[in-house]
Specification:
Blueprint lengths: L1 E8 L25 H13 L3 H16 L8 H4 L2 H11 L8 H26 L14 H17 L4 H20 L5 H29 L8 E8 L4 E8 L1
Parallel strand pairs: 1-3
Antiparallel strand pairs: 2-3
Amino acid sequence: MIFLTLSVVAQVSKPIDTSAIIIHQNIKFNSKQLIIPAVLIGYGAIGSVNNDLKRLNLSIRNQIVEQGYKKTTVDNYIQYVPALSVYALNNLGIKGKNNLKDRSVILGTSLALVFVSVTAIKHIANVERPDGTNFAFPSGHTAMAFSGAEFLYQEYKDVSIWYGVGGYAIATTTGALRIYNNKHWLTDVAAGAGIGILCTKAAYWLNPFLNEKIFNRKASNTTTMFTPYYDGKIMGGELVLMF
C-alpha cells in the first residue's frame, strides 16, 4: 500500500545569481560501481539455494533466540536517518552536491526503484521469515537504509567521507537489528543492502535524463522535495512543490 501527501507552496520569483552557482559532477555509469552491489545481491540469492549458507542463517537465528532476545522497533525509524540527514545537513548550512530539486528527484527515483524491486522480488521468491511469516527476501528496511546511506555518501563525499561512513554505520545497524528481531535471515539483509546501494547509484545515473526529458529543467522554476516513509509493509511520503 502506498500513501502520498502533496503540499504546494507559492513563492515570489527572484532572479538567480548565476555567478554563485557551483556545478558538481554526479557519478556516471561505470561497471566497477556494480561490483559491491552485485556481490551482496549474489550472496543473498545464492543463500536461498546453498545448504551451507542456509545452515549459517539457522545458526545465527538459533543463537539469537537462545540468548532470549528482546524485540525492538528502533529499526523501523533509523532506516530513514541516512536519507533525511542530507536535508538536515543542508538546512544547517552544510551544502551537499546537489540543490534541493535535484537531490529530491534523485532520492525519489531511488525510493521508487527500491519499492518496485523489493516488492517484486519478495512476491516472486516468497521466502519464509525466521519468525514464520512470509516475504523475507530481500529486507525492505535494509534496502531503504542502504539506499539512504549511498545517497548521503554521494552528496557529501566531496565535503567529508565521514558523513558517508556514518550513514553506512546506521544502515548496517538497521540490517543487524532486522536479524536480531527475528524478521530476516543474513542473506535477506545482504541482498537488501545490495539492492539499496544499486538503486541509488541508478538514480544518479538516470538523473540527467530525467531532468532533461521529464522535469524540463531549463524551462521549469518548480522545486520539489520528497520525504520518504516505509515500514516494511506501507511505503509513502510527503511531496512538496514550491513555485
